[in-house]
Design a protein that fits this description.
There is one protein chain. By secondary structure, the protein is an alpha+beta fold. The protein has three domains: about 160 residues, no CATH class; about 70 residues; about 150 residues, Histidine kinase-like ATPase, C-terminal domain (Heat Shock Protein 90), CATH 3.30.565. Helices cover about 55% and strands about 15% of the residues. The chain is built from eleven helices and twelve strands. The protein has a five-stranded mixed sheet with strand order 2-1-5-4-3. The chain is rod-shaped. The relative contact order is 0.07.
């Protein structure tokens, strides 16, 4: 496990210093000590009650044994001197025994001026746990009368009367011992739990937190990477997920930087490109006056290409810095849109051809320019995939079908190319990551999906393999 950083390094740039007593370690230590103290306080009354009961029972058994002297004394008479000594040894004032409903006072001091309170050990008082505190809080020099079943003599119960002064002193001593034990166990348990949790929980969490703070301050800081410890618990999973998340964010930031660089580059050339395209438009207008039928036939396609080139340059710049504009939806004839997209994508009857299997009257409610861009990207990708396959001589087909579903329509484009490689499948719709063509930027499918989602639909990969690739363009509404 990595060593903890010095205190001055536990603060990420721009963050306030983090003090120990504000952290999880101090709170865990305090919480552990409080829990142990509360646990000791909960067991304190039963412990004191058991101690008091045992003390009284010991006095009673000692007094019961002292009464056996009466049976061995000559004539069954015990002198005052012997009686006083027996009572002093047992620490009682008097001893009585009840046999066959007859109470016999066996040993008794010469005088008993104080009325005792009763403790009957033959049955358990429901409030036995407060008896020690009652003994400790009452006035001094009280007398207690204790009754219990005899152990060494025959009878119904044996009874003693004793002063509770010695009992109170013993209870205070026991209370002091218990409080000392509680304090010692609290400190020791708190220290053990603190060290254990700090070693296995707090220190790894501190590493994770510090890594996140440093990553937020500077994602390129090599110290911001958390090194997974290999643990198999939640901490290990958090370290692994944080490491993967940081890697994904670095990749996303790098892509964003490339997009920003692309936008800056396009911004620099956009002005010159527009001037070039404007000159081309002027030239096309002059060609329109030539009167040549072939020029007149090719001129509309040239004008569409020039207009879309200008729009694509602007949209590429917009993609690098902002979202696509909201679609301007209109009713469009699907067959005409597909044929225009196939023409711009380079599909031909002798090469990669377009096969349309949908009703001639099918229409869709979509932005004409954005739908054209989506279809051109898909059809161009299909053509390039077929042309790149060895032995095909650039001959293939793209089949377009239409499936109706409640509230949406699904335009399926299936080519007979070689399929997508695994790398392209993993990053298919990621900018700069999903291209399979040498020199490709990987923006085509990313832009197409963004345009489809802007319509409230989606662009999904249905299947890919040696038999070809199938995409579904899903848009809301119905043809």
């Amino acid at each position: 496990m990595a060593e903890p950083a010095p205190p001055e390094e536990l603060t990420a740039p721009g963050e306030r210093r983090f003090f120990w007593f504000q952290g999880l370690s101090a709170r865990l230590l305090l919480l552990t000590v409080l829990i142990v103290v509360v646990a000791n306080l909960l067991i304190l009354p039963p412990n004191l009650s058991a101690f008091e009961e045992q003390w009284l029972l010991d006095r009673l058994r000692a007094a019961e044994l002292a009464t056996l002297v009466e049976e061995t004394a000559p004539g069954g008479v015990v002198t005052d001197r012997v009686r006083a000594k027996l009572l002093a040894n047992a620490e009682v004032v008097s001893v009585a025994l009840q046999v066959h409903n007859e109470r016999r006072l066996i040993l008794q001091a010469p005088r008993l001026t104080r009325t005792p309170y009763l403790v009957d050990l033959r049955r358990r008082d429901p409030l036995f746990w407060i008896a020690p505190f009652r003994t400790l809080t009452e006035a001094d020099d009280r007398m207690v009368r204790v009754m219990a079943r005899p152990r060494f003599r025959e009878g119904e119960f044996v009874e003693i009367v004793a002063s509770d002064g010695p009992l109170k002193k013993q209870l205070l001593a026991q209370l002091g011992r218990l409080m000392g034990i509680a304090a010692f166990t609290s400190v020791m348990a708190g220290a053990v739990v603190y060290v254990s949790l700090n070693l296995f929980l707090v220190r790894p969490m501190r590493r994770i937190t510090l890594s996140m703070e440093r990553f937020r301050a500077d994602p390129n800081d090599p110290r911001a990477r958390v090194e997974p410890s290999g643990r198999r618990d939640e901490i290990g999973r958090a370290e692994g997920e944080l490491d993967r998340m940081q890697a994904d964010l670095r990749t996303a930031l790098a892509s964003r930087a490339r997009l920003a660089a692309l936008g800056e580059a396009v911004a620099k050339i956009n002005h010159d490109l527009r001037n070039m395209l404007t000159s081309a438009q002027i030239a096309s207008e002059r060609l329109a006056t030539s009167g040549d039928p072939k020029v007149a036939q090719a001129l509309p396609r040239l004008e569409r290409a020039l207009n879309r080139a200008i729009l694509l340059a602007s949209n590429t710049l917009a993609f690098g810095r902002s979202e696509e504009p909201a679609p301007d939806k209109r009713l469009l004839a699907l067959r005409g849109v597909l044929e225009a997209a196939a023409e711009d994508a380079g599909l031909t009857p002798t090469g990669v051809r377009l096969n349309i299997d949908l009703p001639a009257e099918a229409v869709a409610d979509a932005d004409p320019e954005q739908l054209h861009r989506i279809l051109v990207n898909l059809l161009r990708n299909a053509r390039e995939a077929v042309e790149a396959e060895a032995g095909r001589n650039g001959v293939g087909a793209v089949l377009v079908t239409l499936n109706l579903e409640p509230g949406l329509w699904r335009l399926r484009l299936a080519d007979d190319g070689p399929g997508l490689p695994p790398r392209a499948r993993a990053n298919l719709f990621q900018p700069f990551a999903g291209s399979t063509r040498q020199g490709g930027a990987g923006l085509g499918l990313a832009i197409a999906r963004e345009l489809a989602q802007g319509h409230g639909g989606d662009l999904v990969l249905v299947a890919t393999g040696p038999e070809g690739t199938v995409f579904d363009l899903i848009l809301p509404g119905g043809p």
